[in-house]
Design a protein that fits this description.
This protein is α/β, with parallel strands linked by helices. It has one domain: Alpha-Beta Barrel (TIM Barrel), CATH 3.20.20. Helix content is 44%, strand content 16%. It has eleven helices and eight strands. Helix 8 links the parallel strand 6 and strand 7. Helix 4 packs parallel to helix 5, helix 7 packs across helix 8 and helix 9 packs parallel to helix 11. The structure holds the ligand O=c1ccn([C@@H]2O[C@H](COP(=O)(O)O)[C@@H](O)[C@H]2O)c(=O)[nH]1. The site of the ligand O=c1ccn([C@@H]2O[C@H](COP(=O)(O)O)[C@@H](O)[C@H]2O)c(=O)[nH]1 has 16 residues, from strand 8 and helix 10. Its EC number is 4.1.1.23. GO terms for molecular function: orotidine-5'-phosphate decarboxylase activity. Catalyzes the decarboxylation of orotidine 5'-monophosphate (OMP) to uridine 5'-monophosphate (UMP).
Length: 231
Amino acid sequence: MMKDVIVALDFKNRKETMAFLEGFKEGIYVKIGMELFYGEGPEIVREIRKMGHKVFLDLKLHDIPNTVKSAMKSILRLEADMVNLHASGGSVMMEEAMNACREEGKKPLVIAVTQLTSTTEELMQSELLIDRSLTETVLSYAENAKKAGLSGVVCSALEVPVIKEHLGEGFITVTPGIRPLDSAAGDQKRIVTPARARELGSDYIVVGRPITRAEDPEKAYREIKKEFLGV
Ligand SMILES: O=c1ccn([C@@H]2O[C@H](COP(=O)(O)O)[C@@H](O)[C@H]2O)c(=O)[nH]1
């Protein structure tokens, strides 16, 4: 199974993004999220791919099944390597996203967000009125995603062992909420270090601020990658 570090390009515009990417001589795996995509439009995805980087397009689709299917068809034209939706949109919504891929003949990795890594069990119970445990809901969303034909899920590394145990090693886990020992947690709640993510069996770690806000981002990237891959 391929393992890698995905850098979250949470920048407000193309200029800042390109200044950051200039520090990287080789192609890396990057994540384009809502801030950059909404600010710059689809062209930014094409441009970054042309530069030789792999792209996880993190738009977290969540709408009625028909709308998600149509949106997915538009997204597929951008040829991202990985795309995602919210598992809480339900099984039919996820199946329609996969139907879009089939009809367009495209095979990106399609993954579903389970519970955001900024969410705690306390918040689920007090605000979202979900009375199951966090782990139970993550596993249930992951099971639905697998049944709908998706390749994997976004979750915290803390939930990777239970997902792999129930859904198999081949079901991909993409884990944000990564914080090296000296990094501030910020708004993230379910956090682990890159080394712990490796021990727990994450396939991909997603890292934003600990790299993008580092004094030397390229050095921070190399150190995190080394800690995660263990080589
Ligand atoms: O559950 C989730 C889903 C997505 N994210 C995204 O990952 C990065 C994390 O950035 P950091 O700066 O390392 O916190 C960010 O783009 C989120 O939108 C997530 O954190 N948790």
